[in-house]
C-alpha cells in the first residue's frame, strides 16, 4: 500500500469542516482590519530563504526541501529551488517585485501550506499550514510605528477569541535594533566562552556563527546554562526601549494581556524590535500556536527599498488541535435526502434536487433502484433532517411525502411549498 509521505497527512471530512470554519472566521477578522489576501508560489529560489530567513537558522541549515531544477530551458538548468518553509520571505519578495509600495501601507494575509523537514510528532509536520499576515510599507506610511505592532497583536487576540480559543498567553519581547544586537552578541560570546564546551554540538556551532541562536536550543541539559546567559533587554537603546514601551502602553489601553519573556528571540534571523508568541496549554510540548515579529530591514536584505514591516504566522494545524469545538458541531448536514422510488424516478428526483438546491438547501439523493428501507438507512447515516419520497403517485399529484427523521412526523407537501417547509427555522 502506498501511504502519504512521513510528516504529511490527509485532512479528511468531517475535520475539513473545522478547517473551513477557522479559515472563514479569520477571513472575517482580516476584513475588519482592512487586510487583503496574497497568494505566493509554494516554491521559490533557494537564495530567497537563505537571505530572507538566515543561513544560520535551523530552518535554512537543516530543514528545507531543496532540489536542483532539471528543466530543459537553459535558464532553468541548475537553478536551486526550495519548497517554502515560511511565507514572509515570499511576501516581501512579491512586495519588491511588484513595487507594492506604490500603494502606501500594505496589509496582506495568506493561508497555505509550508514545508520543513522536521522530526514529525503531534502538532509538528513536514507539510503544515500557516495563516499569516504582514503590514509592510514605507516608513512615511506609518509602517515603523509601534501602533502597527499593537494593531497586529490586538488583531490576534480578537482572532483567537473569534475561533473560540480563550485560553491563550501572549509572550512579548523586544530584540532591539542591529546596534543593540551587536553589543548583545558580544556579551553572549563572552558569557558562552567558559560554558559552551558543556553544551550540545549545535550550540557550540551557534556560539561561533550566531550566538543569539543559542536561545533556539531545545536540548533539556542545555537549559540551565541558557538560563544564566544575559538577556537582550539590558542592551536596548533609548529608541528601541521607547518603541517597546509604546507597544505595551497600547496593549494595556485596549486590554490585551501579555507577559514579558526576555529570552524570546524567535527562530528567524530577520527579527528586529518586537517579537512575540502566543501559546496554548492544551498543546503539550509543541505549545506555540503562532509567532511573529517586526522585520525592518528584510526588504533591503532582499534587494528592495527600506520597508519596515511586522507580521505573524499561525500554525493552522495547531490552531485546529486546540479548538474546543468539534468537527461535528460545525459540519452542515443535509437538510433533505431525496429517495426516488421505482423506474424513471431518478429524473424527477434530479429536478426536485435542482429546485431545492437553488434555495440554498443541502440536498443529497439516492437511486431509483434502492428499496425504501435502504434510502431511509442512507438518510439516517448522513444525518439528514428530512427524507423526501418521489414515487409515481407523488409525481402525478405534484405533491410529495416529506418525513422529518427525528420526530417521524410525515406530511404531504405540494412541490411549490417544499423549500419553505424544509428551510431550517
Ligand atoms: P515559525 O514560522 O517557525 O515562526 O512558526 C510559526 C508557527 O507555525 C508556530 O508557532 C507553529 O504553530 C507553526 N509551525 C511551525 N513549524 C511547524 C511544523 N513543523 N508543524 C506544524 N506547525 C508548525
Q: Numbering strands along the chain, what is their spatial order in the largest sheet?
A: 1-5-6-11-10-9-7-8
Highest-level CATH class of the largest domain? Alpha Beta
Gap between N and C termini, in Å? 47 Å
**Largest sheet at a glance?**
8 strands, mixed
Number of domains: 2
- Secondary-structure content class: alpha+beta
In the predicted model, the low-confidence regions spanning at least 5 consecutive residues are: none
What small-molecule ligands were found? adenosine monophosphate
**What is the second-level CATH architecture of the largest domain?**
2-Layer Sandwich
The total count of helices amounts to 16
Helix content: 25-40%
Amino acid at each position: 500500500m502506498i501511504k502519504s509521505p512521513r510528516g504529511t497527512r490527509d485532512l479528511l471530512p468531517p475535520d475539513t469542516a473545522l478547517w473551513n470554519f477557522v479559515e472563514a472566521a479569520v477571513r472575517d477578522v482580516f476584513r475588519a482590519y482592512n487586510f487583503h489576501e496574497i497568494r505566493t508560489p509554494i516554491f521559490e529560489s533557494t537564495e530567497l530563504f537563505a537571505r530572507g530567513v538566515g543561513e544560520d537558522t535551523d530552518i535554512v541549515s537543516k530543514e528545507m526541501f531543496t532540489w536542483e531544477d532539471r528543466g530543459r530551458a537553459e535558464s532553468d538548468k541548475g537553478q536551486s529551488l526550495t519548497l517554502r518553509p515560511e511565507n514572509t520571505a515570499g511576501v516581501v519578495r512579491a512586495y519588491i517585485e511588484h513595487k507594492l509600495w506604490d500603494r502606501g501601507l500594505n496589509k496582506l494575509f495568506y493561508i497555505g501550506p509550508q514545508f520543513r523537514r522536521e522530526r514529525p510528532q503531534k502538532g509538528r509536520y513536514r507539510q503544515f499550514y500557516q495563516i499569516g499576515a504582514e503590514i509592510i510599507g514605507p516608513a512615511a506610511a506609518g509602517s515603523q510605528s509601534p501602533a502597527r505592532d499593537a494593531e497586529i497583536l490586538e488583531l490576534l487576540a480578537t482572532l483567537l477569541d473569534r475561533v473560540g480559543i480563550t485560553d491563550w498567553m501572549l509572550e512579548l519581547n523586544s530584540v532591539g535594533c542591529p546596534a543593540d544586537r551587536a553589543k548583545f552578541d558580544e556579551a553572549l560570546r563572552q558569557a558562552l566562552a567558559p560554558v559552551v564546551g558543556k553544551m550540545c554540538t549545535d550550540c557550540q556551532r551557534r556560539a561561533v556563527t550566531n550566538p543569539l541562536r543559542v536561545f533556539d536550543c531545545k536540548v533539556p541539559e542545555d537549559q540551565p546554562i541558557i538560563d544564566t546567559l544575559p538577556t537582550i533587554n539590558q542592551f536596548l537603546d533609548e529608541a528601541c526601549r521607547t518603541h517597546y514601551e509604546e507597544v505595551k502602553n497600547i496593549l494595556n489601553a485596549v486590554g490585551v494581556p501579555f507577559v514579558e519573556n526576555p529570552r524570546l528571540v524567535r527562530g528567524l534571523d530577520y527579527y528586529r524590535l518586537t517579537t512575540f508568541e502566543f501559546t496554548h496549554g492544551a498543546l503539550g510540548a509543541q505549545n506555540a500556536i503562532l509567532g511573529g515579529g517586526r522585520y525592518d530591514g528584510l526588504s533591503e536584505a532582499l534587494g528592495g527599498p527600506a520597508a519596515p514591516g511586522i507580521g505573524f504566522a499561525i500554525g493552522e494545524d495547531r490552531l485546529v488541535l486546540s479548538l474546543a469545538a468539534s468537527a461535528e458541531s460545525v459540519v452542515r448536514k443535509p437538510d433533505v435526502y431525496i429517495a426516488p422510488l421505482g423506474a424513471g424516478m431518478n429524473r424527477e428526483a434530479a429536478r426536485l434536487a435542482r429546485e431545492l438546491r437553488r434555495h440554498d438547501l443541502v440536498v443529497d439523493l439516492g437511486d431509483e433502484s434502492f428499496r425504501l428501507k435502504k434510502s431511509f438507512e442512507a438518510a439516517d447515516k448522513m444525518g439528514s433532517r428530512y427524507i423526501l419520497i418521489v414515487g409515481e403517485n407523488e409525481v402525478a399529484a405534484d405533491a410529495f411525502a416529506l418525513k422529518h427523521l427525528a420526530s417521524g412526523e410525515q406530511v404531504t407537501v405540494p412541490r411549490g411549498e417544499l423549500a419553505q417547509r424544509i428551510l431550517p427555522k
